[in-house]
Amino acid sequence: MIDRYSRQTLFSRIGEEGQRKLGNSYVVVIGCGALGTIIATSLVRAGVGKVRILDRDFIEYHNLQRQVLFDEDDIRKQLPKAIAAERHLKRVNSSVEIEGIVADVNLTNIGRFTHDADLILDGLDNFETRFLINDVSLKHKIPWVYGGAIASRGMTMNIIPGETPCFRCLVSMVPDPEVVLTCDTAGVISPAPFIVGSLQVAEAMKILIGAKEINRDLIVVDVWKGTFQRVKVTPRKDCPACRGKYEFLDGKFRVRTTSLCAQNAVQVLNSGLRAISFKELAARLQPIAEVSYNEFTLRFTMNGHEVVVFPDGRAIIGNTTDKSLARGLYAKYIGT
Ligand SMILES: [Zn+2]
Asked: Can you tell me the distance from the alpha carbon of 274 to that of 271, in angstroms, rounded to the nearest whole number?
């Protein structure tokens, strides 16, 4: 065997035995942006046996500031993130089975994409899909590592079914759209996702080799302030997911889309949301788009799509019939 892992096996907590376990492991990475690229590159370099990477997006220039697996050539070739990631990583470590899949992960396919995984790593930018991961994890007893980063802050937590509190214990319901900042509205500097993604990989290594030192707290970092906190999360007694009710997997709060083909538009319905405050949404969007609103609708244009938002959270995305693109725009600019 090529001695490519010598520096890692010299680290006594991993050793030869730990390396063998990593080599026999299968990890699914959901979302391949800043977090996902850091996670995927580290797992492949560490010699995890199989890595599946799921993402629905293409690469844009504003991704290159922090998404370490991509380059200008990928953009010229108009490659989806999952495919570009797979191609780059196969050149890094040909002994790892790497599979990039271009897909919008949702309740109809998440089971199929994750059922035989040893571990799921979260590289996502939206809450709805995280709640789906949480349901699938608890239902099929697959641990997952939550991670999120925005502006200069980030957090991560391990969810080990039957052992730790779950993601719904932490965040009881999909947060109000007004409080959900996204990278597309609040910005992000690369050290935030880099450090969170790295922490997630360290936890992944420990979980995969069965180390005892697995972290059971929420870790919160702010790279601008230079602070690092551990927060104890207590299990919620009334948590539906911990009690076997998988409401996101069952579609109770799903974001539904309907093509309005006659209008070349897609309608996005979001039953998980409470009413939207146009004033706050407008304040969030103003730095990046021209926004106008009255008491009935809020309108803005993004990448050539006119978006019309209604007070109940419904939105109509114009100039497309692509439901996944519409859901993506919704998640990025309105929140899920
Ligand atoms: Zn729970």
From this structure: 8
